[in-house]
Amino acid sequence: MKALVFQGPGNYAWQDVPDPGIDDPSDAIVRVDVVTICGTDLHILKGDVPEVTPGRVLGHEAVGTVVETGGDVRMVRPGDRVLISCISACGRCRFCRESRYGQCGGGGGWILGHSVDGTQAEYVRVPFADLSVHPLPNAIDSFDAVLLADIFPTSYEVGVLNGAVSPADTVVVVGAGPIGLAAVATARFYSPGRIVAVDLDNSRLEAARALGADATANAAEDPEQLVADLTDGLGADAVMEAVGVPEAFEMCTRMVRPGGRVANIGVHGKPAVLHLEDLWIKDVTITTGLVDTSSTPMLLSMMAMGRLPASSLITHRYELGRMEEAYDVFGRAADTGALKVALGAP
User: Fold this and answer.
1) What is the number of other CB atoms lying within 10 angstroms of the CB of residue 87?
2) Cβ proximity of 61 and 146 under 8 Å
3) Residue 207: predicted pLDDT
4) pLDDT confidence of residue 309
5) How far is CA 28 from CA 3, 69, 175, in A?
6) How far is CA 124 from each of CA 21, 22, 112, 148, 302, rounded to the nearest angstrom?
7) Alpha-carbon dihedral 107, 112, 34, 327, rounded to 10 degrees
8) Closest to 168 (Cα-Cα) out of 191, 200, 202, 139
9) Backbone φ, ψ for residue 328 (5° rounding)
């Protein structure tokens, strides 16, 4: 089969690799029908995730059709159309029993495209299939559903829930890429007073407005002053970092009010300065996190009911064999206007 293989920082190729097989009775083999590229994949290519070694098939988001299952799999069978979660869960360890699947200590967590071969391929082996794939109702389009593999649960759990967004809050989302835009959309579940989106790209700020942001600020034009003006100098109740660079995180800590929350969603490859000399007295809560995907069934229901905007986030579609072109377009988002790229059948 063909797959996108990481060959070291800055290098990747769509090439022939062996077909996956059942390695454990809990495995499922899934034919990939729709797959997408994540900002985390770009971090891997930059060398920000050194645990990913050359030869690894990348990707952790997909929708596909089950073609084979191990003897212990009970929840799906060949022929089922399924969402492949970015997180695999053993279901037995302490963390899985607490629904903290991202921290799975039994061989799961974020493993697809990280420590085992991932989804950017014609076929993928999914470990712990009973808890790591979700059967899809016919009402949900595969290109919409693929956004529930990672970006929507990540934004909702690591951003909105960790940020404790509440009615009437002033919420700031720094970064209006796919994760930030999904955070804007899911923050609206809790009726905040206003949502402010911050980014360097004005087209992404327009997308944020379309998804429900009440105000936007270009990151080069003093968004901290805008937040101060909107809150009478108090600061935001909840601020989400959705970029993954030190400057964005440090900006978030300056925009939060005393007693407020900073929820870091971004994947960081460099240290950020934590200004405790300013923050120690402000009762600020700072959270980090890897998504658990415990919210995926709820988000699937919301999407099936038409309550979760998704289609507008996919700006580019390609056939699966054009993976290298899709990576190039996604990696040059500032030039191409790409939000989310998806690959699958025409």
Assistant:
1) 28
2) yes
3) 95
4) 86
5) 18, 4, 35
6) 9, 10, 9, 18, 27
7) 170
8) 191
9) -60, -45
C-beta separation of 299 from 189 below 8 A = no
Please, are residues 344 and 314 in contact by the beta-carbon 8 Å criterion? no
Contacts of 210 (CB under 8 A, 6+ apart): 312
What the block records as the tokens of 191 is: 């009726």
Question: Which helix (H) or strand (E) is 48 found in, with range?
Answer: none
Per-residue model confidence (pLDDT) at position 317: 96
Nearest-angstrom CA–CA distance, 60 and 235: 36
Confirm whether pTM is higher than 0.85: yes
CA distance linking residue 40 with residue 48, whole number of Å: 9
The two tokens of residue 269 are 């490859």
Question: Whole-angstrom Cα distance, residue 79 to residue 65?
Answer: 6
The residues of the chain scoring below 70 in pLDDT are: 346
DSSP 8-state assignment for residue 193: S
Question: What is the token pair recorded at 182?
Answer: 């999904």
Residue 346: predicted pLDDT: 66
CA neighbours closer than 13 Å in the CB half-sphere of residue 88: 24
Residue 7 tokens read as 């060959």
Query: Collapsing DSSP states into helix, strand and coil, what is residue 83?
Result: strand
323-331 and 39-46 helices cross at what angle (nearest 10)?
Answer: 90
